[in-house]
Specification:
The chain has eight helices and no strands. By secondary structure, it is an all-alpha fold.
């Protein structure tokens, strides 16, 4: 934070202020689509971070094995988190990438919650690759849907500020679903619904357009 402080003073802005979403941005449907995708894909990760080890232990894995599966998933995130932004930015339309990166955690996490544990390592790998790809693509869409650096800064403030607050509800809702049902079938269905919602907003946000500010 101290190292970045000189760059955060807004010296290139006429008013010297920090980037804040303008009124026009709050009324732009595209800005909200980017924000929704950011929040929903973040919620997918938060649910995994909060519940995956506990779910695996409940399903019969010992604590060490559950931790190793979660670790493999976490390590795999770095692969597509680096690859997807590089490749997706080369095309004006990122919708095929949305389908790919949202499908992977859908199969991976639902498989870990209700699928055969014999395939746990494969499910964990798919899950990690997908979550990393989702995060990298979400950040990339912020830049691609903004027409200039100022718009990118304002859209980033909106997408991450609002998106992360909404994302925090994911683990809470999964916990309620697990307590209410006593198993992992309902949480798996809830996770699938979040994946489908993220995909829907991602497809809208991935079209070749820019926000208005």
């Amino acid at each position: 934070a101290a190292a970045w402080l000189p760059f955060a003073r807004g010296r290139d802005r006429p008013d010297g202020g920090a980037a804040r979403p303008s009124g026009a941005l709050w009324r732009d449907p595209l800005a909200w689509q980017v924000t929704a995708f950011m929040g929903l894909q973040s919620s997918l990760a938060y649910i995994v971070f909060g519940w995956l080890p506990a779910a695996l232990v409940d399903r019969g894995l010992d604590i060490v094995a559950a931790g190793l599966v979660a670790s493999v998933s976490a390590l795999a995130q770095g692969v597509l988190a680096l690859v997807v932004p590089t490749l997706a930015a080369r095309r004006p339309d990122q919708r095929p990438w949305v389908v790919l990166v949202v499908s992977l955690p859908l199969v991976g996490f639902v498989g870990l919650l209700v699928g055969p544990l014999a395939f746990a390592w494969g499910f964990a790998l798919l899950l990690g690759l997908g979550l990393g790809g989702c995060f990298g693509l979400a950040l990339t869409l912020i830049v691609l849907r903004a027409g200039d650096p100022r718009a990118a800064a304002e859209l980033s403030a909106m997408a991450q500020g609002v998106g992360y607050c909404g994302a925090a509800l994911g683990p809470f809702l999964v916990g309620i679903a697990h307590d209410w049902s006593g198993g992992w079938g309902l949480p798996a269905a809830l996770y699938a619904a979040v994946c489908l919602s993220a995909g829907s907003f991602g497809l809208l946000a991935a079209r070749n357009r820019t926000v208005r500010i």
